[in-house]
Amino acid sequence: MLTRRHIRIKVMQALFAFYQGESKEIKDGLSDLNKSIQNIYTLYLYELKMFWHFHRFLEERLEIEKQKKIPNPNREFRIQALLEMPFMHALASDKDVLNIWDKKNINWGDDLDMIRGAFFSFWTTEMDGEWLNSAKTPDEQDSILWFKRFYRDAIANNESIQSHYEDLSMHWSDDLDAAQMMAVQTLQNAKRGKPLLVNLFKDEDDELFAEMIFIKSITSHDELMAKVRSKSEKWDYERLAPVDRCIIEQSMIEVQYATEVPVKVTINEAIELAKQYSTEKSPGFINGLLDSLVQDMISEGKVKKIGRGLID
Fold first, then answer.
1. What is the pTM of this model?
2. 11 Cβ contact partners less than 8 Å away, ≥ 6 residues apart
3. Helices (H) and strands (E) in the chain, counts
4. Spatial distance between the Cα atoms of 10 and 222, rounded to a whole number of angstroms
5. 140-150 and 73-83 are packed helices; what angle lies between their axes, rounded to 10 degrees?
6. What angle do CA 304, 228, 237 make, to 5 degrees?
């Protein structure tokens, strides 16, 4: 499921697109925001489909091993153990997963050769390795650790797959870590006997968080930017890049309306966004500006947090 950091990134991107775009209808911007968030789930489903294809790949490898003139019973046994992992077994037959792949038209199609190429590349490095040739019976955790290594080396860090995702969607390079976290959670769900598919949001509060920040940022835009301009003696408003304004804007709204989020967390998250998406000097600039703005908001009684220590 998405973390608040992922949600903040999507809000920042949506605000930037809204202010740079032609349409000034909030409903259009909100629709684009929701689509961009849902696209993370689509990316997650593509990751899962790769696992399904890997299950088929392992079945092929097992048949090849069985047909060799000089058999390797240890390798056959280990491949069979991977196929019998709860995750792999469930993924091949889970009706909810199969139905959503069909509903969302999740299909690698002509790009399947690229995926299988990644499988083969990884497999050739593992063929003579200790794990696949060990005579020891692997326990479930042992198999999971091997599978996580496969996911890391063959898929998660595969530049060709990452480049392909970027061709499909300009934002998927930002979304990939969220989708991969959800894929790993699916692996854990299978281990614990839980439903495979991971929810996009942790709860309703997280789902409403993005919408609230986006809408209130836009409807309060003039007021927020006036407060920023009031600090122009120390911080030059014209120095603010458009993306910096979006970060400051949504952070001010979060400080005021996200009653359960500590002020320090909001400011730290704004700094991290600036590090990732803005200029070298932006993090320090935004830190100082937000700190000053928040102190004014606290003095005006606009910051009301639930729980101790959330304002300091």
1. 0.87
2. 33, 210, 213, 214, 217, 250
3. 15, 0
4. 22
5. 90
6. 160
Q: In the structure encoding, which two tokens stand for residue 310, read together? A: 């959330």
Place of tokens 């469930």: 90
What's the DSSP call for residue 237? G
Residue 43 contacts residue 25 (beta carbons within 8 Å): no
DSSP labels for 48-114?
HHHHHHHHHHHHHHHHHHHH-SS--HHHHHHHHHHHTSHHHHHHHH-HHHHHHHHHTT---GGGHHH
Opening angle at CA 287, ends 254 and 274, nearest 5 = 80
Amino acid at 273: L
Structure tokens at 104: 């969302």
- Residue 77's closest CA among 126, 119, 137? 137
Q: Which helix (H) or strand (E) holds 58?
A: helix 26-67
User: Using one digit for the tens of pLDDT, what is the confidence trace for 41-69?
Assistant: 999 999 999 999 999 999 999 999 999 99
End-to-end CA distance of the chain: 29
Q: What is the pLDDT of residues 199-246, one digit of tens each?
A: 999 999 998 999 999 999 999 999 998 998 888 666 666 667 899 999
List phi, psi (to 5°) of 90.
Answer: -70, -40
Report the distance separating Cα 4 and Cα 11, nearest Å: 10
CA pair distance 268, 224, nearest whole angstrom:
19
C-alpha 89/C-alpha 95 separation (Å) is: 12
